[in-house]
Fold this sequence. Notes:
Elements: E1 3-6, E2 9-15, H1 17-34, E3 41-46, H2 50-58, E4 65-71, E5 74-75, E6 78-79, E7 86-87, E8 97-105, H3 109-120, E9 125-133, E10 146-150, E11 156-157, E12 173-176
Parallel strand pairs: 3-4, 3-8, 8-9, 9-10
Antiparallel strand pairs: 1-2, 2-12, 4-7, 5-6, 11-12
Bound molecules: guanosine-5'-monophosphate (5GP).
Amino acid sequence: MAVIKVHDKEFITYLSSETIEKRVREIADEINRDYSGKRPLFISILNGAFMFTADLFRYLTIDAELCFIKIASYKGLKSTGKIVTTIGLEEDIFGKDIVILEDIVDTGKTLHDFLPKLFHQQPNSLKIATLLHKPEATEYPHQLDYVGFPIPNKFVVGYGLDYDGLGRNLKEIYQLK
Ligand code: 5GP
């Protein structure tokens, strides 16, 4: 098991790139089945979900639209509990089938603050796909339709997720030691 250092903290390998790839492919297969004949709009939440989104999209065979939005609510190792900004939702989502793409659902606060804005625009349907989920950290429960991996309530980096700006480029996911 590899130990790496990001800033001042040590992390150990938790999910290998092969494990992640296999699971992302399975989620794409499920989405391909569920949305067969439809044309969903995927809304990917930056920054963390960029890698999951790019990999998932490679395996989608349905017609799919994609946009990216940014909600900043996290600094360092703990959620600040504040939604700072939402940038980029210029699409008209009225009547569309929406799939939100998240890197990780932790307390659920980000989605709790963001989803009403979407429902306000009356999409036809809305589902949530998240690569990681920390069930023990839940403060705002959501129906998560596609979950890559339920994980313990420990800080993780890699595969798009950062620790204070670093670690997003790691192919594997690492857990705080
Ligand atoms: P929530 O609003 O559900 O508490 O947190 C969601 C956001 O917090 C995620 O999109 C992610 O940016 C950040 N986050 C939550 N847990 C972790 C973690 O273990 N590692 C990293 N790097 N970010 C996390």
